[in-house]
Amino acid sequence: MRILSILFSLLVVLAGLLFGALNPGIVRVDLYFTAFELALGPVLLLAALAGALLGGLAVALGVAVPLRRRLARRQAPPSPAVQAVSAPDPAA
Q1: Where are the domains of the chain?
Q2: pLDDT by residue, tens only, the chain of 92 residues
Q3: Positive or negative, the Cα torsion across 15, 20, 22, 27?
Q4: How many other C-beta atoms can be found within 10 angstroms of the C-beta atom of residue 42?
Q5: Four-residue CA torsion sign, 32, 37, 40, 42
Q6: Between the CA of residue 61 and those of 25, 66, 70, what are the distances in Å?
């Protein structure tokens, strides 16, 4: 299984290098506060990476964090006040 993940990682890296090599044109990227010129291939790869990271962050904050909070509340032990009221008196 580990060898398959290593081979898949190498395949993705090679595909990225090939994509970058096949798109050598220079483009100007203007980010309103700064501007720079890069080759088209790396710009597109960085834009896809940024989109994937921002999408993953949005899913994590929008779905995973509230779900973990809800599960933690559901599994939390009762408070000491509730235990004291519901526990029978051992002296009686």
Answers
A1: 22-71
A2: 788 888 988 998 888 888 878 888 898 988 889 998 988 888 888 888 899 999 999 988 888 888 888 888 877 666 665 555 555 666 65
A3: positive
A4: 14
A5: negative
A6: 37, 8, 14
